[in-house]
Specification:
single chain; 145 residues; mainly alpha; 4 helices; 64% helix; globular; transmembrane helix; transmembrane; membrane
């Protein structure tokens, strides 16, 4: 079992990883009163909302039970943290140079892995939802040990 303050602070720090102003464009064309929001902003809002709901869920579970299952928390945290970093920064581990065309296959490979990262993220959130509802139904006992 793990203390609840650690779980809530870990998910709060993950929310801080996401950069909202980084992907928030405005119109720079004079005379055009149009703002086009990219898909990356929508993805960032979805991820931040799910992370906030996860932190609130752990807060509710900490009110029901004194401690949270450590194994399920670590699985949820590792799956969520790695996919959040990968989805927000897919080229973070590439040594990027503008004139280097040999990186194009590596970039294309990383872009094709983004849907799988989304799948892992959704699986982690589904695992948390199952754990949340099982624990919320039986507040006096730990359903998954």
């Amino acid at each position: 079992m793990i203390k609840s303050i650690l779980t809530i602070s870990a998910f709060a720090l993950m929310i801080c990883i996401i950069h909202f102003p980084f992907s928030f464009p405005t119109s720079v064309v004079p005379g055009w009163h149009l703002t086009i929001y990219p898909i990356h902003l929508l993805i960032t809002i979805i991820i931040a909302t799910l992370l906030l709901l996860g932190a609130i869920g752990y807060l509710v579970l900490s009110r029901i039970n004194d401690r949270i299952n450590k194994t399920l928390y670590m699985v949820h945290f590792v799956l969520t943290a790695t996919t959040v970093v990968y989805i927000c920064f897919p080229t973070i581990w590439l040594d990027m140079r503008r004139s280097d065309e040999s990186l194009l296959p590596a970039i294309a490979g990383r872009i094709t892995l983004i849907p799988y990262a989304w799948g892992v993220f959704i699986a982690a959130q589904t695992l948390f939802l199952i754990y949340f509802f099982r624990t919320a139904k039986k507040p006096n006992e730990n359903p998954i040990s």
